């Protein structure tokens, strides 16, 4: 009876939502019978026009979508220069899978910011075309996913969370949330060549290839030197095109001379003097401040253009932004004043009442810096301002080129070095690829600033082909252990022979075999890894030759931890549970700090903190064995000898979390620990991710001694996820929206949009008026996200109610049968 009531309530709630959002449900169902857009309803075409301003596909996009390989669901990898329009092809393929094949899709992206951007931009599509969009970053996203059988779901995830989702899928016969997965899309496939993350991506894809669940893999990338080899690894059709929608004029500046670079028909480089940079408008002071003329190059594209300035280090972004805003004429400081003020207000709200003094001054001139010292929320506001033309010039590091989609009219590369290393061809290509805005400008240009003595290296940089991708798996043994354990835990393999076959599917073995036909690397490697894993007690006694994992090894897989971390965690939790300090959250926060946390604080700050511990902090220090001896060892040797360094580091990092939890402003915390606010925010995100691993570990382990932990961690994870610890939970639901961080949530709350429902029902124009620095596009996406989230929630409840009812009916009819029988 109860379950029927729940069902009818949920159905009522969902109908109400649907009537509010769509007008009339039956009308919506009849939409678009004319399937003329690659088999998709023509409504999709209109949506691309409305939301992405795309009216026509490029020839290559049409050619690629019509490939036999695509029609036959063969795996596909395709490579084009940056901004070639690769994402659109992937989006159309994903929509086909979600709407026509009605299967779930996993979309793996390399950076958190890219995942959030995608979720935000795909929500209107999910809402109108009726599929779910779920975000998996940090600690966000249920594991295993919520059951959603009625509509297909697009899981948008980072590489790390994608690896976890693939394991869930393999453990559930190729399904996620009760539906089959039909496609996995990987953006920036060249990451395969990166240490750690590349190896993780390689093992994730290898398991999919080996498992044979008929899942189509789509990979996209800027050009890769050995596409065919990567195609061979992924059993994929390879498609490449050298297409750029806007012309790119590349140049190099040495002293005052600017040389244009042209490629001859035979592929050789022609470098020709184009012009001299004119310093005449600079005063002698300005010449001294900006001897290389970066400011002059920026001035050339003003007032209508936009410019990305790539700097070699994080700190140089700030100093170069300062030079540029000082060199820009006063006229720039007089335009778009209202918009700039709104941006300032939004930054202030995000920054807990303060804005960095340099940004305060530079945004007046339309200039900003963008690096990991800023919080994600501040960076997002600056990106939106750049796309909206309020900020005309952003000084950033090369990570921005890979992590954010920001096109500009001009790209200036201030040095051919990234940190201390000479730039790689792929990095250079990714940076210059940002020049030119498709649909907005007809061409874009790039200027690389270099010294006379870099000439030879520059020539090689410009002439050489793109780099090959080499597997990093050989040097990442922890990732090989995890692949072995997860493939056994999910049922993909169960014997040594099967593991060898799995290993043979990796890029690492395929590349090793290239040079050696009789290669035994796979069997040797599996043998030595199994020996090591046996010595770590990862296996129960085998029954015949079947490998079986211990509960801790199984829980490690569920939590995406490697076996050593899982064992460390188990011991730590057992020790903690014997005397857990629950006077406040400090002890729990201590447990949530990842073991591999790599932030090191300066010595003088550590001393200041450790010699002034307060009562609760001292209690935990005592509990962990941190005493005066440790401090004196730290003073004398800079190292601790009587306790593990991990405990010492985790303790200090937990103090940061505790200060934030106790409502200390991020500016004060940043000063106390001498860490940038951006660094603190990324630490929070890693902690959120580790806390959700602990939750999954303890849930999967089902060990009575640890059964209080899931509830305790569930309590702190939501706040860690949103990156704001010490504030009221009223903002939590607003901050679950992809585009909403603390400042925007506060503005929404103050303006009367207190719940997701308020945002879902908002009028986009009114929302823009009520909230500073909010574009119509972002407002529209925000409203769509709120609607989609509420509908998905209502539908999940509905499904739960249905399954409860079915369960109940079954047991009632069984009872009846039994009564009859007796
Ligand atoms: N057919 C098209 N017509 C007009 N604009 C397009 C078209 N296809 C894509 N674009 C636009 O071009 C820009 C770059 O596209 P996209 O991000 O897909 O490129 P990409 O090849 O994935 O680049 P990256 O290598 O940076 O990921 C986007 O703003 C996108 O909306």
From TrEMBL:
GO cellular component terms, A-Z: nucleus
Protein's recorded name: Helicase POLQ-like isoform X1
Record-linked SUPFAM superfamilies: P-loop containing nucleoside triphosphate hydrolases, Sec63 N-terminal domain-like
The keyword Nucleotide-binding belongs to this UniProt entry's keyword annotation: yes
CDD domains: DEXHc_POLQ-like, SF2_C_Ski2
Record field: catalytic activity: ATP + H2O = ADP + phosphate + H(+)
Stretches assigned to coiled coil: 787-814
GO function terms (MF aspect): 3'-5' DNA helicase activity; ATP binding; hydrolase activity; nucleic acid binding
All residue ranges annotated as the Helicase C-terminal domain in the record: 293-480
UniProt cross-references to PANTHER family, sorted A to Z: DNA POLYMERASE THETA, PUTATIVE (AFU_ORTHOLOGUE AFUA_1G05260)-RELATED, HELICASE POLQ-LIKE
Gene Ontology process terms (BP): double-strand break repair
Keyword field: ATP-binding, Coiled coil, DNA damage, DNA repair, Helicase, Hydrolase, Nucleotide-binding, Nucleus
Subcellular location: Nucleus
PROSITE patterns: HELICASE_ATP_BIND_1, HELICASE_CTER
Domain (Helicase ATP-binding): residue spans on this chain: 67-242
Chain segments annotated as transmembrane: none
């Amino acid at each position: 009876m109860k379950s029927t009531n729940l069902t009818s309530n949920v159905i009522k709630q969902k109908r109400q939502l649907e009537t509010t959002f769509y007008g009339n449900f039956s009308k919506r169902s009849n939409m678009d019978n004319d399937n003329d857009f690659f088999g998709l309803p023509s409504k999709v075409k209109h949506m691309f026009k409305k939301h992405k301003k795309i009216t026509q596909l490029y020839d290559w996009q049409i050619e690629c979508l019509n490939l036999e390989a695509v029609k036959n669901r063969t795996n596909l990898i395709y490579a084009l220069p940056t901004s070639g329009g690769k994402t659109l092809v992937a989006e159309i393929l994903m929509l086909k899978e979600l709407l026509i094949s009605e299967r779930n899709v996993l979309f793996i992206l390399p950076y958190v910011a890219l995942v959030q951007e995608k979720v935000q931009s795909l929500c209107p599509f999910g809402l109108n075309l009726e599929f779910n969009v779920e975000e998996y970053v940090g600690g966000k996203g249920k594991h295993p996913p919520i059951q959603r059988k009625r509509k297909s779901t697009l899981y948008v995830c980072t590489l790390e969370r994608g690896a976890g989702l693939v394991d869930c899928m393999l453990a559930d016969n190729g399904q996620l949330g009760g539906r089959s997965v039909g496609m996995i899309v990987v953006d920036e496939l060249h990451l395969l060549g990166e240490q750690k993350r590349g190896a993780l991506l390689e093992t994730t894809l290898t398991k999919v290839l080996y498992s044979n669940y008929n899942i189509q893999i789509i990979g996209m990338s800027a050009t890769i030197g050995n596409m065919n080899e990567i195609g061979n690894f992924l059993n994929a059709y390879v498609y490449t095109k050298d297409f750029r929608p806007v012309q790119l004029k590349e140049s190099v500046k040495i002293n005052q001379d600017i040389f244009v670079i042209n490629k001859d028909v035979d592929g050789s480089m022609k470098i020709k003097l184009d012009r001299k940079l004119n310093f005449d408008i600079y005063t002698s002071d300005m010449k001294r401040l900006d001897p290389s003329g970066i400011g002059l190059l920026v001035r050339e594209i003003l007032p209508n253009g936009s410019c990305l300035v790539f700097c070699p280090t994080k700190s140089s972004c700030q100093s170069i932004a300062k030079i540029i805003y000082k060199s820009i004429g006063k006229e720039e400081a007089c335009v778009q004043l209202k918009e700039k003020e709104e941006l300032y207000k939004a930054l202030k709200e995000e920054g807990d009442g303060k804005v960095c003094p340099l940004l305060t001054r530079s945004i007046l001139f339309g200039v900003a810096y963008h690096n990991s010292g800023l919080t994600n929320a501040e960076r997002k506001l600056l990106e939106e301002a750049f796309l909206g033309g309020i900020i005309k010039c952003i000084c950033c590091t090369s990570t921005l080129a890979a992590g954010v989609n920001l096109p500009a009219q001009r790209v200036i590369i201030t040095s051919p070095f990234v940190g201390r290393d000479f730039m790689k061809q792929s990095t250079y290509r990714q940076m210059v690829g940002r020049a030119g805005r498709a649909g907005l400008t007809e061409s874009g240009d790039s200027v690389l600033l270099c010294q006379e003595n870099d000439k030879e290296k520059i020539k090689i940089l410009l002439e050489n082909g793109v780099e090959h991708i080499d597997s990093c798996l050989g040097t990442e043994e922890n990732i090989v252990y995890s692949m072995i354990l997860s493939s056994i835990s999910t049922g993909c393999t169960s014997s040594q022979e099967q593991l060898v076959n799995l290993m043979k599917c990796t890029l690492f073995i395929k590349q090793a075999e290239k040079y050696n036909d009789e290669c035994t690397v796979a069997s040797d490697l599996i043998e030595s890894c199994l020996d090591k894993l046996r010595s770590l007690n990862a296996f129960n006694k085998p029954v015949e030759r079947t490998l079986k994992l211990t509960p801790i090894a199984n829980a490690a897989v569920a939590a995406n931890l490697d076996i050593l971390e899982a064992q460390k965690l188990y011991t730590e939790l057992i020790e903690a549970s014997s005397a857990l300090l629950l006077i406040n959250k400090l002890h729990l926060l201590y447990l949530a700090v990842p073991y591999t946390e790599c932030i090191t604080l300066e010595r003088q700050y550590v001393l200041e903190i450790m010699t002034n511990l307060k009562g609760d902090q001292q209690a935990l220090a005592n509990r962990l064995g941190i005493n005066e001896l440790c401090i004196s060892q730290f003073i004398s040797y800079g190292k601790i000898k009587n306790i593990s360094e991990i405990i010492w580091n985790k303790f200090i990092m937990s103090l940061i979390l505790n200060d934030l939890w106790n409502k200390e402003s991020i500016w004060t915390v940043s000063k106390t620990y001498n860490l940038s606010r951006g660094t603190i925010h990324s630490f929070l995100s890693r902690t959120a991710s580790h806390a959700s691993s602990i939750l999954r570990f303890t849930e999967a382990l089902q060990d009575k001694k640890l059964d209080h932990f899931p509830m305790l961690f569930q309590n702190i994870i939501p706040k860690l996820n949103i990156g704001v610890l010490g504030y009221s939970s009223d903002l939590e639901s607003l901050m679950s929206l992809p585009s909403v961080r603390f400042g925007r949530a506060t503005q929404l709350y103050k303006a009367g949009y207190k719940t997701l429902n308020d945002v879902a029902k908002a009028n986009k124009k009114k929302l823009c008026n009520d909230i500073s620095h909010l574009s119509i596009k972002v407002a529209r996406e925000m409203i769509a996200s709120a609607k989609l989230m509420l509908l998905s929630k209502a539908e999940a409840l509905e499904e739960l109610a249905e399954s409860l009812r079915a369960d109940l009916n079954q047991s009632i009819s069984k009872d009846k049968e039994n009564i009859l029988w007796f």
